Amino acid sequence: MKLIDLRDPAVRAAAVSLFDARYGEMEQVLWLLSVNSRPGLLAGESSPALEALVWTVKSWWGVQGVRFETKAQMARALAESMAWSPDLFGPVPGYGPDGASFACERVAELVGQSMSLGVPRREYSLASKVLHWLMPWRVPVYDSFVRSALGVPASWDHPEAYRKVSAEIFALALAMAEDSAWTGSLEPASPLRALDKLTWWLGGGNAGAAAEVRDPWKVARKLSLRFP
Question: Which three-class secondary structure state does DSSP give residue 55?
């Protein structure tokens, strides 16, 4: 996949539309979990919604080899070892290089803090995805599909590869800032969320790599969650 394809408005709009048609309800549930995780994060406490977000992201988007214990360990790392403020959850004024640096620092921090609590390996993909859902305007997703779409070599180690992914995604977000029509109508209405859909779809996800969950709202019902 060449970068020029990602800059084509028709390609972008078609990919996001197809993604939303297939996975839209799952997206809504993940956003519900994200929003309901905020009070606990601001209080420095883990919560059932935060644990559910970690494990639902892992389960629905096929992060392989993650132990069940990681659900609680990563949730604790997020809530107890990382600083949070209300502004981190919302939109940002722009997409300069400082934003990419922030994303890399936060993902590396979550990976390290999770390992200090017992997670046995560097869960870069899961950490980026969970942080992306908590801060969808600030943290890009990292996985093999995104790497493929952006032409990042599979041989690169995770920190180096994620720096490249973040730089490319933020550059694309900046270049596309004047055109928001292609990003779709689902919340979160973030360019980084739309770019994740786009790169995931064009990087190989369109081949049916993720299963469509028949009843995604079961997660929310189990926790009696609703939007504030």
Answer: helix
